[in-house]
């Protein structure tokens, strides 16, 4: 038999859920209309037990945003699969979901004559607290109301709302401990396209307009209200000063309005800390952060206390180089994706573009630093020369060769850092991680050097509020004192300042 | 009418709490560079001094400028999130109108001699607006502006229209902004539009643009 999975219920499952509902509950069964409404409502979470495409069970929970109580609305398992622990698995999922939604207690009703189910619930910590006489009709059977407390376990898992506005993405994310609850990103990228790069004033204006809708959407996605938030975290640097100030002003007012502590956190460390949302962040690790604004190589021994900058770009960020070369080649903005597409049919070895700061004399002083300005100029010169000679050339070859030069130098230096420091882990972060060749080359070289490579999901690699919330939650869980309300923004904040008191 | 929290960062950082025409507390710092640093403590301070909890505030009003962009946005962002955080209404008002409201009672204005309110727009320019008096609901009557001009251009503009304005150097205060909102709520003119009044496009030039200057100002 194939592996059974528990996944969120979708519209396409309703028909099969109804078939099972009728089979399990007979004349007590819900109508299809009720099932569709409850399973897909905003205030509920329904899950299906899937055997390939086939629904073999389901369970649903209701939790109103401002309430601390969750209710198990229904649970059903295919009669042929009973007694194999699937009911417990579905219940476990509901309980953990109730906890994620901020419930402190969970209730259910069960037939007084169903001792098998009562036994299961009792073993999971539910207690019989009340009896509703003759609740199930026409069978005339009482209902037991059972309750389990979740409070003790939720305390150590603070709900943190994070606000990110350091560049062109307005991000608001919500986490509970190390669990992602919401990650909403509003990007002003399209407004910058005709300028070929991020325009700070346009980014700042867009942040201001995006704040309120992004907050509402994040709370909606997490199914929480501001009352459920335990702390606010915000990026206070590094980044564009005017853009950072919008997020900081917003976060401070939100903290005062909700009476919650605030944590001013480092954007770059957020890119590292986000990995806790995808399982254990294993340390020490080397981290390579590559975006339109940053190209940094870090040694992280401890997320909160020991982050060292090994090197960074001395001129353009890698993402900036992609944008500029894309413009030069008449490709679209942002440059990363458009060069990726153009490079597909190109030969990466067609042109040997320079690898910045890799010559022996540079390696002495700049072993872990990067430079992409010379590379960009080299591409421009090469194109100019070709055009002056009236030679036809392949844009695909230029794009592929340029991309190869960037990916080569990034991964070579990152792998060298791992080997030099005896740290056999590499974490990638930043928007340029979307680049296919960078990921491919990193995978290849890490494998050859016996380095464990971690690449978070792309939505967590680009700038986002969830990474800020995740780092904030780590600070709360470590018992760190919140920031004072008087911190400012620092556009060149050192990566070694994990958070500003 | 309820408790109003007013936030204005069109010049310094100014925050006030007003209830039924009465100022409960105000916090003013004239520094024009430290809005992001000061805004949180400024709000906390007025709430504490008035003995008011955030959830007792009934509405928020934000000063929309016109004003230098970076500082202005801090107040607008804070007002937006305070209102969203508590779940109360957010209003916006023109900061120059609040200055006019404070200045008009002390001056004798006429058609040819309205009140001129100006504010520094940086880059050797000023934001300006003209007011002819206060209406029956207690709102300032803006007859021209807001606009942005170099001082000499503004003088030419006024002379050409045969306007000899009375000038004021009263500074913006969040208290005036709150009183302005109270008048607007009475008259039904209160606005929930809170967009910043920039009056200038963002500075940005399209690469290899062949259309000359991409933006004005």
Short descriptors:
heterodimer, A: 501 residues, alpha/beta, Aminopeptidase, Nucleotidyltransferase, domain 5, 3 domains, seven-stranded mixed sheet, six-stranded mixed sheet, 17 helices, 40% helix, B: 217 residues, globular, disordered C terminus
Textual characterization of the structure:
The complex is a heterodimer of chains A (501) and B (217). Chain A is α/β, with parallel strands linked by helices. Chain A has helices at 14-25, 32-40, 86-100, 115-123, 151-155, 189-192, 200-222, 241-258, 267-273, 318-328, 335-343, 360-366, 373-388, 395-421, 436-448, 458-461, 465-477; strands at residues 4-8, 44-51, 54-63, 69-77, 105-111, 127-136, 141-149, 159-164, 169-176, 179-187, 231-237, 262-266, 285-290, 295-302, 306-312, 425-429, 452-454, 499-500. In chain A, helix 14 runs parallel beside helix 15. The longest helix of chain A is centred in the last third of the chain and has 27 residues, at 395-421. The model of chain A has no long low-confidence stretch (mean pLDDT 93). Chain B has a single domain, classed as Nucleotidyltransferase, domain 5. Chain B has 5 helices and 9 strands. Chain B has helices at residues 35-50, 69-86, 95-103, 151-160, 174-187; strands at residues 3-8, 13-19, 22-29, 59-63, 89-93, 115-120, 126-134, 140-149, 166-167. Chain B has a 5-stranded mixed sheet, with helices on both faces. A 4-stranded mixed sheet of chain B has the order 8-7-6-9. In chain B, strand 2 (13-19) and strand 3 (22-29) form a beta hairpin. In chain B, helix 1 (35-50) crosses helix 2 and helix 3 crosses helix 5 (174-187). Chain B starts with a strand and ends in a 30-residue tail after the last helix. Classes of the chains: A alpha/beta (501), B alpha/beta (217).
């Amino acid at each position: 038999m194939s592996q059974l999975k528990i996944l969120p219920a979708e519209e396409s499952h309703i028909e099969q859920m109804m078939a099972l509902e009728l089979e399990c509950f007979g004349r007590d069964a819900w109508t299809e209309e009720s099932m569709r409404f409850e399973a897909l409502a905003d205030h509920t979470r329904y899950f299906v037990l899937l055997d390939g495409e086939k629904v073999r069970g389901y369970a649903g929970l209701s939790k109103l945003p401002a309430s601390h109580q969750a209710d198990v609305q229904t649970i059903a398992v295919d009669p042929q699969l009973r007694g194999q622990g699937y009911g417990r698995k579905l219940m476990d999922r509901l309980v953990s979901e109730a906890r994620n939604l901020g419930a402190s207690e969970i209730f259910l009703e069960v037939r007084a004559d169903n001792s098998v189910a009562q036994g299961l619930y009792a073993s999971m910590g539910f207690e019989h607290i009340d009896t509703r006489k003759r609740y199930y009709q026409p069978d005339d059977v009482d209902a037991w109301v059972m309750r389990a407390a979740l409070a003790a376990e939720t305390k150590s898992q603070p709900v943190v709302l994070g606000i990110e506005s350091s560049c062109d993405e307005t991000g608001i994310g919500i986490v509970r401990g190390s669990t992602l609850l919401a990650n909403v990103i509003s990007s002003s990228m399209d407004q910058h396209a005709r300028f070929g790069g991020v325009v700070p004033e346009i980014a700042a204006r867009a942040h201001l307009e995006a704040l309120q809708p992004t907050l509402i959407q994040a709370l909606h996605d997490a199914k929480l209200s501001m009352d459920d938030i335990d702390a606010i975290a915000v990026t206070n640097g590094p980044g564009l000063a005017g853009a950072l100030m919008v997020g900081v002003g917003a976060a401070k007012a939100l903290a005062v309005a909700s009476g919650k502590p605030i944590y001013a956190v480092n954007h770059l460390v957020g890119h590292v800390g986000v990995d806790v949302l995808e399982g254990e962040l294993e340390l020490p690790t080397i981290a390579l952060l590559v975006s339109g604004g940053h190209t940094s190589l870090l040694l992280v021994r401890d997320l909160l206390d020991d982050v060292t900058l090994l090197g960074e770009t001395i001129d353009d960020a890698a993402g900036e180089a992609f944008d500029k070369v894309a413009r030069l080649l008449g490709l679209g903005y942002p440059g990363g994706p458009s060069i990726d597409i153009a490079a597909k049919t190109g030969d990466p070895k067609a042109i040997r573009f320079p690898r910045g700061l890799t010559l022996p004399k540079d390696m002495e002083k700049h072993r872990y630093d990067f430079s992409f300005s010379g590379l960009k100029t080299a591409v421009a010169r090469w194109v100019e020369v070709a055009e002056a000679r009236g030679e036809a050339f392949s844009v695909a070859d230029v794009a592929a060769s340029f991309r190869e030069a960037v990916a080569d130098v990034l991964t070579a230096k990152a792998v060298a850092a791992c080997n030099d420091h005896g740290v056999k882990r590499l974490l990638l972060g930043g928007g340029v991680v979307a680049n296919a060749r960078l990921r491919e080359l990193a995978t290849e070289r890490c494998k050859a050097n016996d380095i464990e490579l971690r690449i978070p999901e792309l939505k967590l690699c680009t700038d986002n509020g969830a990474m800020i919330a995740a780092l904030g939650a780590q600070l709360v869980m470590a018992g760190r004192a919140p920031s004072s309300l008087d911190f400012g923004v620092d556009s060149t904040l050192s990566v070694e300042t994990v958070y500003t008191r | 009418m309820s408790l109003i929290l007013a936030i204005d960062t069109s010049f310094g950082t100014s925050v006030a709490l007003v209830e039924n025409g009465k100022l409960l507390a105000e916090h003013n710092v004239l520094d024009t560079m430290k809005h992001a640093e000061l805004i949180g403590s400024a709000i906390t301070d007025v709430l504490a001094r008035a003995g008011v909890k955030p959830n007792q505030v009934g509405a928020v009003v934000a000063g929309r400028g016109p004003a230098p962009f970076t500082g202005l946005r801090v107040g607008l962002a804070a007002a937006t999130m305070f209102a969203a955080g508590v779940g109360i209404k957010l209003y916006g008002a023109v900061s120059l109108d609040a200055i006019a409201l404070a200045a008009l009672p002390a001056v004798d204005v006429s058609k040819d001699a309205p009140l001129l309110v100006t504010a520094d727009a940086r880059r050797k320019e000023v934001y300006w607006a003209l007011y002819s008096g206060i209406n029956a609901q207690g709102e300032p009557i803006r007859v021209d502006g807001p606009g942005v001009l170099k001082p000499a251009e503004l003088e030419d503009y006024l002379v050409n229209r045969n306007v000899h304005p009375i000038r004021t150097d009263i500074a913006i205060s969040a208290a005036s902004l709150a009183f302005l909102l109270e008048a607007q709520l009475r008259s039904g003119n209160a606005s929930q539009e809170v967009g910043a009044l920039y009056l200038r496009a963002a500075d940005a030039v399209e690469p290899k643009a062949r259309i000359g200057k991409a933006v004005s100002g």
